[in-house]
Each structure stands twice: as C-alpha cells, then as structure tokens.
Design goal:
The structure is a single chain. By secondary structure, the chain is mostly helical. It has one domain. It has helices spanning 3-40, 45-68, 77-107, 113-136. The protein is globular. The two termini are 13 Å apart. 28% of the residues are buried.
Length: 143
Amino acid sequence: MSEALIENLRKDFERLLKFSAVGAFGACINTFFLWFLTEIANIFYLFASPIAIEIAIFVQFMLNDRWTFHERRTKGWSEFLKRILKSNIWRAGGIALNIAVLFLLTEYAHIYYLLSNIFGILCAFISNYILESRLTWGVGWEK
C-alpha cells in the first residue's frame, strides 16, 4: 500500500469516528424531540418524526461543519444555505428509511416507537455518511 492511500484511509477513518459521535448526539436529539412532540405536544409519532429528524439534521450539520469537516468549513451565508440544502437532499433517503423502519417496527412488530426510531437511525447512518462526506463537503481521496 502506498503512503498516500494509508494516509487517506486514516483521515477517512478519523472523519467517520467524528461523524459517528455527531450522529450519536443527533440520535439523542432526534429521540428527545420525537418523545417531546409525541408525549408532551400530543403530535402523532409519524408526524412528529420528520420534525424531530429535521431538528437533529440541523444540529448535526452545524457540528459536522465545525468539527468533523472543519478543514472544509462553510464560509458565508450563501455557502451555508447551499450546504444545508444539499445535506437535506442527500439525507432524504435516510429520512425515508428512518421513518419507514419506525413505522414498520412500531405498527407491525409492536416495538415501542422510541426503540423503533433508534433502529431507523442506525439503518440510515451509513448512507448518510457516504453521501454527506462526499457530496456535501466534497471529501474525496487525494492522489
């Protein structure tokens, strides 16, 4: 293996660990707001879920921008709007997957909705990392 390849793998692994930590924090935010909106605000869990997810996405975007991908940090309002929009577009598949798993496990497997949500988050994680790192922040392997 070349030194450049090893260095690229190391950097990608380090970003993946940071992205995972941010994702875990985002999962807590998502779960809290899903619970709050469902139990306190009395919003049906399938309507509360996209709101909770979007709040978590925004927080995760800010943390990833400032920490995980700090070398490619967003500069200026225009770039911020483009990147947050990209982030939501790339995460749309993860959002759909999360909500589908939430619905299927809750309604058909009769699993408590907050636990179903955690499974949904885990299912969406890998696709979110690949799309976010490559398409939102433009991280690729250097030659």
